[in-house]
Specification:
It is found in: Cell envelope. Belongs to the bacterial solute-binding protein 2 family. By secondary structure, the chain is of the alpha/beta class. The chain is built from 12 helices and 12 strands. It is elongated. The two termini are 37 Å apart.
Amino acid sequence: MKTPALGRRGLLFGGAAAGAGVLLAGCTSNESNDGDDDGAQSQAAANTDEEGPAVTIGFAGPQADHGWLNAINEHARSRAEEYADVTLEITEGSNDTAQQIGQIESLINSQVDVLVILPADGRSLTQAALSAMNAGIPVINLDRVFDTPQAYRCWVGGDNYGMGLNAGHYIGEQLRDVEGARVVELSGPDNLELTVQRTQGFDDALANYPNIEKVARQAADFTVESGQDVMSGLLQAVPEFHALWNHDDDQGVGAERAIDQAGRDEFFMVGGAGSRHVMEAIQADNTVLKATVLYPPTMAASAIDLARAVGQAKGIGGLAEFEIPSFIQLYSAVVTKDNVEQYLPTGFN
């Protein structure tokens, strides 16, 4: 059954006290916390297989023209399939703003209970998200943020600054005892705020290591071809260095080709995002690739969990509040040979 409009507006701004206890990392719980037992909330969080009220979740994302974006779609689909009480209405992704707005309007008109939106452009899609919220449909904003918090019930996404920070600290620790260490950065497009944030985090981390100098930085376009072209130029410009941080594992495939063609192996490489290809190379330990910093596409599965929780008026297990948070930023873990087996199942193609 569809939630009445007034009831849905209640989900936007409060009124979920009937049941705290959702295990976001796994699934949501449907056990209400009606008793006074101190263990009731933790018990509710543990009962993740119980079905609850039916929830129809609309999902609108950009075109899957990149390995990470394709993984976003797959994680959303597979997570929704785990729930007998969830119906997922997913649109064909588009990088055309007008087309994505039309898809969101169509989902609003079909009266889905909750919307998950990864906008092709957060600013341009803000009004469409506001329209959903004004129609009483809670929006889970995935990764690329809208211009105003009024456009979403909850934002969940990656930490671009933290991604650069953790890459920088990993490289810094590996080179701590190397006098005159030289580092190169292969970034994403400079017109993207996420690139600026990743570089800032990287620079802030390296500032803790006075023996390290970043001797070159060039921007690629998150594609294999651009990664190969730009990396070829960097290798010619910098005859010797100790470490390379590449912002994106897709463009890193091209960077690897350039490195192989140049026959260079005096440095180690740290990737970005967490592709399966890179994780397998880290596991094999027979190339310059020694680590990658995650920007986990599993956030799409978490967005489905959050949408289900909102639709069923639940909270999150482990938190005292009856509501889901309004902002969840994921951690950018560093994957190395020591922990790659743990993260390998999350690697994307």
